[in-house]
Amino acid sequence: EFQSSSELLEAVHTINPPVDQIARNLYLGDAALLPVGCAQKLKGNELLEVLHAEHFARLSAEYGASILRDTQRPQQQIEAIIQCRKKAEANLLRAWAPHLVGYKVDLQKYVSRATAPLIPEAPADYEQFRRSLGSARSVGPLTEQRVKASQQGAHDNNNDNN
Q1: Closest Cα partner for 30 from 155, 87, 114?
Q2: How far is CA 105 from CA 36, 48, 70, in A?
Q3: Is 38 helix (H, G, I), strand (E, B) or coil?
Q4: Between 20 and 30 A from 73 (CA), which of 2, 113, 142, 159?
């Protein structure tokens, strides 16, 4: 029913669902952010190498954390995650190093942070984190009815302003 992605985005912003704020806060709290513009000149294979390294780093961080949170996982799986993260660190260092010359970036610190999860991986810390989100999610999921109600409200507000 939306004529454009901007209409959908506007509807979501009007509703202001809590999960968006949670995701936004996680993203803004991410300590693994590089300076603006540092990747502007990346092209071709160099860009692919950085993208693959970033993807593998975040995958081993977040998916790995979900495995490490599971206290029933065998030690072999835990060791595999640790090895994946070490490989991800090496790949990320190799991929970014030639492109960050001249930027004031502690690449080792960035790499360590990029291979660490945004959500706690220790089971007790994760449970505390999940409980802290409970009140933020009590508003409920974004449904078609809520989007339509928001559109109607935005439409009514626009008519009031004319």
Answers
A1: 114
A2: 12, 21, 34
A3: coil
A4: 113
